[in-house]
Write a structure and sequence with these properties.
- The chain is of the alpha/beta class.
- It has one domain: Alpha-Beta Barrel (TIM Barrel), CATH 3.20.20.70.
- It has ten helices and 15 strands.
- The strands form two sheets. The protein has a twelve-stranded mixed β-sheet with strand order 10-11-12-9-8-7-6-5-4-13-14-15. Strands 1-2-3 form a three-stranded antiparallel β-sheet, covered by helices on one side.
- Helix 1 crosses helix 9.
- The protein is globular and about 60 Å long.
Length: 326
């Protein structure tokens, strides 16, 4: 339903956050995101900048205020700056963010900021070059670190790092001092995320074990989140500019506070990460009144949003993360 305060679902949760996957293409192959072998011909991007802007405009008219572009790898789109500039110009937008693997971020951070990007989340599952390359299928950890530096220099804030806990190596004490040093030297927020069961390649590891390891490095203290929202619980270390965060969707589910809807790279609107199917926005986008028709579909998606992801009947049929956008 839509009220004076914005869009709410049937459980009274305010829906103010839309994640739009702008591509399925990626230059990495992380097993928990895109476990299939690289296809010979990847699916082309379906949504041009005008369509992405129409989807965002409909959401903003309903009271959503936060938009994040995801993938795949959004930086593979040469027109990403055009997309960002169109979204930033829309009335009502308060937060415009991007999730990226950071492989080419260093060269584009300044241009993305100039186009209207406000903040960035960068995937970085290990600081060890060999481990990172193994997890990502050949990624260059030094390129990601250069991207973090460029993001800070461009004024993007906050800069967040996402570390998915995918194997016992995720809790290896040899890697954690490096992340501790990163937040001591820079205003970066490193969040450790329990892997969701979106594919058989990700093992569940509780985030609390990670906090136990960090407490052996330095004194942890609860800290406010960098943006005042989201499901992470944040902690500072002595002398740190940034924070350590934990996102625990398995051991400490936060469905009761979920405020988001998603648009996949295939232009499907889905109410939950575990939704086995969504409603295609393509007919509305090709119709005579795209913004109004998309707004109607967003209202319906909010009404269909489940109370918790465990209520989704066939979670085994969900899309891979590179399709649904995380």
């Amino acid at each position: 339903m839509t009220s004076l305060s914005g869009l709410t679902d049937s459980f009274g949760r305010r829906i103010d956050y839309l994640r739009i996957s702008v591509t399925e293409r990626c230059d990495l192959r992380c097993a928990y995101c895109h476990p299939q072998p690289r296809p010979s011909s990847e699916r082309p991007d379906l949504l041009p900048p005008t369509d992405i802007a129409a989807i965002a405009e409909a959401a903003l008219q309903l009271g959503l205020r936060r938009i994040r572009l995801t993938g795949g790898e959004p930086l593979l789109r040469a027109d990403l700056e055009d997309i960002l500039s169109r979204l930033r110009a829309l009335p009502g937008i308060e937060d415009l963010a991007l999730t990226t693997n950071g492989q080419t971020l260093a060269a584009r951070a300044a241009g993305l900021a100039a186009a209207g990007l406000m903040r960035v989340n960068v995937s970085l599952d290990s600081l060890d070059p060999e481990v990172y390359a193994a997890i990502t299928g050949g990624g260059d950890v030094s390129a990601v670190l250069r991207g973090l530096d460029a993001s800070l220099a461009a004024g993007l804030a906050p800069v967040k790092v996402n570390v998915v806990l995918t194997s016992p190596r995720s809790l290896d004490r040899a890697d954690l001092p490096g992340f501790a040093d990163l937040i001591r030297r820079h205003p970066i927020h490193v969040r450790f995320i329990e892997a969701m069961p979106t594919c058989s390649h990700a093992a569940y590891l509780p985030a609390e074990r990670l906090l136990d390891r960090f407490s052996q490095i330095g004194r942890l203290r609860p800290a406010p989140g960098p943006d005042g929202g989201g499901p992470a619980r944040y902690y500072g270390l002595d002398g740190s500019q940034g924070t350590i965060g934990v996102i625990a969707p398995i051991s400490d589910p936060f469905c009761a506070q979920c405020n988001r809807l998603r648009v996949t790279a295939r232009a499907d609107l889905v109410p939950c990460l575990f939704s086995p199917a969504g409603v295609s926005l393509l007919p509305a986008l090709h119709g005579e009144r795209p913004v109004a028709d998309i707004a109607d579909l967003i209202r319906q998606a909010a009404a269909d949003k489940p109370c918790r992801y465990g209520d989704v009947a066939d979670a085994s049929g969900i899309s891979a993360m590179h399709v649904i956008g995380g």
